[in-house]
Amino acid sequence: MNMKSLDLLIVNGLLLDPFTGAEGRYSIGVQNGKIAGVYPEQAILPRYNNLLDLAGAYITPGWIDLHTHVAYKEAVIGIEADCIGIQQGVTTVVDAGSSGSKNFLQFEKNIIKKAKTRVLSWLNISAAGLYEGRSELEDLASIDVEATKKLISSKAEIRGIKVRMSHSVVKETNTGGLKIAKKLASQLHVPLFVHVGNCPPVLGDILNLLEQGDIVTHIFHGKAGGCLDAEGYILPELKAAIDRGIYLDLGHGTESCSFFRFKNAREKGICIDSISTDLYSQNYSGPVYSLKHTMEKCMALGMSFREVITAVTLKPAIMLNMPELGRIKAGALADMTFFEKVEGEQTYIDADGNEITGTQQLQVKGVVREGKVIWR
């Protein structure tokens, strides 16, 4: 055994790690920003330089929000990364297409490198991203395939390609931008992160273009042409896409989470793989608020505590193809979230103004971000 003292030893935490299946009271050692060991309750513990006593609070892998907009003061929408990141218990946020090939280097310099939260990117297939407006795919000449390819091949922070498939975005180009993005994503072996909303394009046409590993966000929006047909059944194209291995992401947003759609889809066996917020400046004060608040909504809608934790830790890490995240095991990055779960009624509102009542609330205490303790 290496006799060097640990940088940090975390004790008296209630560990919940969906990857290893560990659940219960464990101690966790941290060295050089990584997990050095996970020790059961009766184990003899290594020496340490610093001690963190969680006094019975939960500790999970660091929470990951797959859908945010953090090009603060740069894109047409945006919020400060740390405001919705480490200050809310989230160690990793993924910016969903705020930047494209034309401005990603600016985004990297001003946002990624300055945030304490880990900031990743779904690079917008449109070169301008959302820096110049919200109809970025009305002209397919806005796509610079070669510049996009070069960036994705050279920047590890870029985890895939964002494509927004709503009528207000694409105007008359329909699925043209998606087809270009899909061809490029296949060449580069990265996923597509696809926004769905008002049609056209028709959701079935979008789903038919997607392959294993691609991600659909806003899947439970309440607009016309969503995941349920007129009789309330799941679209056959959605069932087929799930069978092919696509992932479903919540992407709550200002207009993109319907409690009715969520509950009815779940009753028919369709549930989200990941819980994300689509947080930006206009919905931070409601109806979204935070990833924590969105997780509470999902529990109020019937997801178990373990399902919810999995949907903000292990599943997003898999979708990002980043095995160093989303788990608490030796060698993984020491990103962890600690919080308490308390009982008490709370009213939650969806994007359409509908209300439900939940009884489980999460009180975030802080995070460990690559070995550094940051209190809320």
UniProtKB/TrEMBL annotation:
Ranges for the Amidohydrolase-related domain? Answer: 58-373
- UniProt: Zn(2+) 1 binding residues: H67, H69, K162, D278
Protein origin, superkingdom? Bacteria
Pinpoint the site Transition state stabilizer: R164
Q: Which UniProt keywords apply?
A: Metal-binding, Zinc
Single GO MF descriptor? metal ion binding
Please tell me where Zn(2+) 2 binds in this chain: K162, H195, H218
Q: Which residues carry this modification: N6-carboxylysine?
A: K162
Q: Which Pfam families match?
A: Amidohydro_1
Which PANTHER family does the record match to this protein? DIHYDROOROTASE-RELATED, IMIDAZOLONEPROPIONASE AND RELATED AMIDOHYDROLASES
The protein's name: Dihydroorotase
Q: Which organism is it from?
A: Propionispira arboris
